[in-house]
Design brief:
- The N and C termini lie far apart (about 65 Å).
- The protein is about 55% helix and about 15% strand.
- A hairpin with a 3-residue loop joins strand 5 and strand 6.
- It is α+β, with helices and mostly antiparallel strands and about 280 residues long.
- A five-stranded mixed sheet has the order 3-5-6-8-7. A two-stranded antiparallel sheet has the order 1-9. The protein has a two-stranded antiparallel sheet with strand order 2-4.
């Protein structure tokens, strides 16, 4: 015969309620402790990335200077320097430039994640800056048998962070050359009364609408099978650098027809709070 449930008195209910509250409080405290530990681990990771990237970039800088000097010397020597030596020096220069680019991406990634990205905005000859960066890629374009067309309006002056602009242009050009499959790449700079507009167009593999929607995401590698795909943070960093300067970046693309990245930057100084870009 089924026994009736035991009677629980008022005192017993209070005891059970107090016990449950105590257990819940203990669980909440334990969860908070775990969250605090995870937060410390994430901050330690970000600090390590920043320090490591900074040290790696600093260590390679003298090598770049020496390689550039050696390459210039070889080119100036003309017929007295074997072409094979010049080609090897060009390859070394490209490799060191690629190393610098990747370490810089890691450095800015760590700073953005930690909310420590600081820009130094100043009036800058954007035309001269863009041309200077683009000409550093002429050797890379020639090695890939890609014609690099530069269509840069003279005298475009904007209030920007020079290093941030350099990194954005480097990222867009390196991607265009990487995925351009030997077709011409065009860099164009124009301005109106308010904005400077930079376009980098390739005629390569292109992207689907779904890929375009994800291209500025963190760790996204739309063409992940490419052997030089990198970390997948380059465009993510570029988008945040452009936003921190008060601008915007967009992409237009079709599969097998190429991609065009467009960067719009204000000619005037953006609002003060844009100079510090907090992580999203």
């Amino acid at each position: 015969m089924r026994q009736p449930p035991a009677y629980v008195g008022e005192g017993s209910l209070c005891d059970l309620s107090e016990q449950a509250a105590t257990e819940t409080a203990a669980e909440v405290a334990e969860l908070r402790r775990h969250v605090a530990e995870l937060g410390k681990a994430v901050r330690a990771r970000d600090d390590f990335i920043v320090i490591a990237a900074h040290e790696l970039r600093n260590s390679i800088t003298p090598i770049i200077a020496v390689s550039e000097l050696a390459l210039k010397t070889a080119r100036d020597a003309e017929g007295s320097c074997p072409p094979r030596v010049t080609a090897l020096l060009e390859r070394m220069q490209l490799s060191t430039q690629n190393f610098i680019q990747r370490s810089t991406q890691l450095l800015d990634f760590g700073r953005i994640e930690a909310g420590n990205l600081r820009l130094e905005l100043s009036s800058t000859d954007l035309s001269a800056l863009v041309l200077s960066v683009a000409r550093n890629y002429e050797v890379s374009a020639a090695r890939r048998r890609i014609r690099l067309d530069l269509d840069v309006q003279d005298g475009v002056i904007a209030v920007v962070d020079r290093l941030a602009v350099e990194q954005v242009v480097e990222n867009l050009l390196s991607n265009a050359l990487k995925f351009g499959v030997g077709q011409p790449v065009t860099l164009r700079l124009r301005s109106d009364d308010r904005l400077a507009r930079l376009n980098v167009q390739d005629r390569g593999v292109g992207m689907s609408p779904d890929q375009q929607a994800r291209i500025f995401g963190r760790f996204e590698q739309v063409v992940a099978q490419h052997r030089d795909s990198g970390f997948g943070v380059g465009l993510w960093v570029a988008e945040r650098l452009v936003a921190a300067m008060g601008g915007r970046i967009a992409v237009s693309s079709r599969l097998d027809e190429g991609s065009t990245f467009t960067v719009a930057l204000p000619l005037a100084r953006p609002e003060p709070d844009r100079m510090t870009h907090e992580p999203t």
